[in-house]
Amino acid sequence: MTNEALSVAEMAALVGDLETPPTAPIVNATIASAPAAAAPAPTPKTAEPTASGLKVFVDVDQLKKDLQVNPNDLDDAVISQAPMFVHYAQQAAQARRQWEKSKLAAEVTESQLDAAWRKKFLEDGTKVTEKVVENAVKADPRYIKAHTQVIEARALYDIANDAREAYMQRKDMIVQVSVDRRREREGQLRIQAAREGEIAAQSGRDAALAAEAARRQAA
Fold first, then answer.
1. Are 161 and 99 in contact (CB under 8 A)?
2. Which of 15, 91, 131, 132 might form a disulfide with 57, Cβ 3.0–4.6 angstroms?
3. Residue 190 pLDDT
4. What is the distance between the alpha carbons of residues 164 and 90, in angstroms, rounded to a whole number?
5. How far apart are CA 164 and CA 171, in angstroms?
6. Confidence of residue 189 (pLDDT cuts 50, 70, 90)
7. Tell me: the pLDDT tens digits for 104-128?
8. What is the torsion angle, in degrees rounded to the nearest 10, for the CA atoms of residue 75, residue 81, residue 83 and residue 86?
9. Cα angle vertex 159, ends 158, 164, to 5°?
10. Which residues in 83-208 belong to E strands, given as ranges?
């Protein structure tokens, strides 16, 4: 019997369940151990876990709302900046931890499948080569599932990390808008001061002309 005559499902059935499947417990531990968002940051809308059980740390629609800045209320934007940055930085850290644990789970799964397939081939009298074992392991649905989960976890981390970086850009935007508003106010004050000076000068000239006319009348 050779593994080439077997389907993927049949190959997995022959190997049977691994003694200690690592992927699901590690993912569950990641979900259970993830701390809540730090106060006083607002709590974004909770996203549902993925089909594979991975936690979604950042809701994209909520992130878009959180990143908005009202130019007419910069005080609120400045006050919310620091706590919200901390919140999303924590989400990025937790998403990275989930990704790293998924990678570890995939490595353990691959190692266990390698040992299980080698044992199966030896029991069946099949010639064991590294290529035969490698092909069997990579075709196993459990290998595919574990590595697919790693890809999903990396994507979730990228989103969370982009959210953290977006808040850094939000800070720069707030600073720039504040500088522009200050310059605008300074320009308005200079124009107002010039107008007031012109009005005062004109009033002085009018007063001088009136005094001169009164003097001539008296003479």
1. no
2. 91
3. 67
4. 9
5. 11
6. low
7. 999 999 999 999 999 999 998 988 8
8. -170
9. 95
10. none
Sequence-separated (6 or more) residues with CB below 8 Å from residue 59:
44, 45, 46, 47
As given in the structure block, the two tokens for residue 84 are 């919200």
Please state, in angstroms and rounded to a whole number, the distance separating the CA atoms of residues 157 and 54.
Answer: 11
The stretches of 41-140 forming alpha helices (DSSP H) are 60-67, 74-124, 130-139
55: phi then psi, degrees, rounded to nearest 5 = -80, 135
Cα–Cα dist 190/151, whole Å = 58
Question: How would you label 54-85 residue by residue, b for 16+ Cβ within 10 Å and e otherwise?
Answer: bbbbbbeebbeebeebeeeeeeebeebbeebb
DSSP 88: H
> Token pair of 61, please?
């629609």
In this structure, the number of other CB atoms found within 10 A of the CB of residue 170 comes to 19
Query: Do 30 and 101 touch, CB atoms closer than 8 A?
Result: yes
Tokens of 32: 């259970």
Q: What is the pTM of this model?
A: 0.60
Q: Report the alpha-carbon distance of residue 93 to residue 97 in Å, rounded.
A: 6
CA atoms lying within 13 Å on the CB side of residue 149: 29
- Greater confidence (63 vs 215) lies with 63
Say how many CA atoms lie within 13 Å of 94 toward its Cβ: 23
In the block, residue with structure tokens 């000239």: 205
CA distance 55 to 156: 8
